[in-house]
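sorry for the late reply, my laptop died twice this morning and i had to redo everyting from scratch. anyway the thing you sent over, i finally got around to it. pasting the sequence first so we're on the same page, its 119 residues, then the predicted structure underneath. double check i copied it right bc i was rushing
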Amino acid sequence: MARPPRPPAEPMLTGFLVWRVFLVTAVIVVSAVSLFLWEEYRSGASLQEARTMAVNILVMGEIVYLFNCRFLVARSASVRGLLGSPAMRSSRWRPWCRCSSPSPTCRRCRSCSAPRGST
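ok and here's the structure:
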């Protein structure tokens, strides 16, 4: 919201964005295919294992790219990039807590032995 609106005559995908999408796509695809071929021919892995590795590389590449796309020109590998959204700062997601208590001062979060869903 800090930037001014896009002029109506300007295309939605600029040359820079198209170049960036093609570059990232090429890097992810080349990485996945290279790992697939490496696993299948050099390591002697089965076809299923090689496919699994290739799909894992595709998924991880997309996750990294999604975090990188938060800002057009700034670095996303920063505190602002990781926790910059208001939803992330105000979330009550606690991966270490199994009690799913809505209270931000849950005393059971440090050594939670409650079953999932209990309060």
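DSSP finds four helices and no strands in the chain.
thats about all i looked at so far, will dig more tmrw
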